[in-house]
């Protein structure tokens, strides 16, 4: 699969049997049509490409569905974003927009559970917010941006289910229902058994997740049969995915930073920093490849992501370009 395709599109192509080169070509054609710069000769070349191979038509149909899902915003977004015809960063932006279209189609079709799980959850938090809740058993729950959980407390069970791509901090030390047995925290690809513990948990999507234990202990069982159960003690964190799991020391300050409304970076790549920051704001935030490897460190307030971007412009040789309030490009000065 071509490295030019963003991850969500690679997975979409794999699931639907699309040829990667054809999908990339179809995206490039859509770029041209959205730009408003196509000529009659371009239309003829597109027709010849479309009719040359059944895989071309299949890929074009998929891209057309994405464009339709994005609706009336797509042409405006494309015209403002895709200013430099040779820009790899520009293609990445289109890929991200197309991925939004793919995600929307999948959610509407019921192929993904995250949207509906969050919509139907007992406790949820909007993008860019952190919310605190007291559960009926006395446990304390903090939800991070765009996160949700469902709670099932009965006579002999206590279960909290984390929606896909959600993040929580859970403190069960003040629970008044300890006699009901351990509380279980279910991630999409793992199950935690906890009692009298304080921990953080995040689903990273694609079968991956992280758990950090601040106090007490927990036992983690993943959905992957070849991975043994892991007992975590205070001061430990685990990262797991389909390829394996690893237990490392926990940085308490870093684990709790988001609960204080802070994004803490320690020598992160700018591209990775922007990916994380984008969790806390609506729209599309991306950078050009030439600045992607710049290093970012510091603590940044999540309540004002525009201020964070201004701080980056003061600290790094970058400029922040607002195409619209929800479409932001970070480029070299």
UniProtKB/TrEMBL annotation:
<dbReference type="InterPro" id="IPR032623">
    <property type="entry name" value="FecR_N"/>
</dbReference>
<feature type="domain" description="FecR N-terminal">
    <location>
        <begin position="24"/>
        <end position="66"/>
    </location>
</feature>
<keyword id="KW-0472">Membrane</keyword>
<protein>
    <submittedName>
        <fullName>FecR family protein</fullName>
    </submittedName>
</protein>
<dbReference type="InterPro" id="IPR012373">
    <property type="entry name" value="Ferrdict_sens_TM"/>
</dbReference>
<feature type="transmembrane region" description="Helical">
    <location>
        <begin position="93"/>
        <end position="115"/>
    </location>
</feature>
<dbReference type="Pfam" id="PF16220">
    <property type="entry name" value="DUF4880"/>
</dbReference>
<keyword id="KW-0812">Transmembrane</keyword>
<keyword id="KW-1133">Transmembrane helix</keyword>
């Amino acid at each position: 699969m071509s490295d030019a395709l963003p991850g969500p599109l690679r997975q979409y192509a794999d699931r639907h049997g699309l040829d990667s080169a054809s999908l990339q070509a179809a995206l490039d054609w859509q770029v041209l049509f959205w730009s408003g710069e196509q000529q009659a000769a371009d239309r003829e070349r597109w027709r010849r490409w479309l009719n040359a191979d059944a895989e071309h038509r299949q890929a074009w149909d998929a891209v057309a569905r994405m464009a339709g899902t994005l609706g009336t915003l797509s042409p405006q977004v494309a015209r403002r974003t895709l200013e430099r015809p040779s820009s790899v960063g520009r293609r990445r932006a289109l890929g991200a927009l197309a991925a939004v279209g793919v995600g929307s189609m999948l959610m509407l079709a019921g192929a993904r559970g995250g949207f509906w799980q969050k919509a139907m959850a007992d406790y949820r938090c909007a993008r860019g917010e952190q919310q605190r809740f007291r559960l009926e058993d006395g446990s304390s729950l903090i939800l991070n941006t765009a996160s949700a959980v469902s709670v099932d407390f009965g006579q002999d069970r206590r279960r909290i289910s984390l929606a896909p791509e959600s993040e929580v901090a859970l403190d069960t030390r003040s629970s008044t229902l300890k006699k009901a047995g351990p509380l279980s925290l279910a991630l999409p690809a793992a199950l935690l058994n906890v009692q009298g513990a304080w921990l953080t948990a995040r689903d990273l999507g694609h079968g991956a997740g992280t758990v950090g234990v601040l106090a007490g202990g927990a036992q983690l069982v993943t959905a992957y049969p070849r991975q043994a159960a892991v007992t975590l003690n205070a001061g430990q964190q685990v990262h797991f995915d389909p390829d394996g799991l690893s237990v490392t020391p926990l940085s308490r300050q870093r684990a709790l930073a988001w609960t204080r409304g802070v994004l803490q970076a320690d020598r992160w790549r700018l591209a990775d920093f922007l990916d994380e920051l984008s969790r806390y704001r609506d729209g599309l935030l991306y950078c050009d490849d030439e600045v992607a490897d710049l290093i970012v460190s510091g603590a940044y307030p999540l309540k004002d992501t525009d201020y964070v971007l201004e701080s980056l412009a003061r600290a790094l040789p970058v400029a922040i370009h607002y195409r619209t309030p929800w479409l932001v490009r970070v480029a070299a000065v």
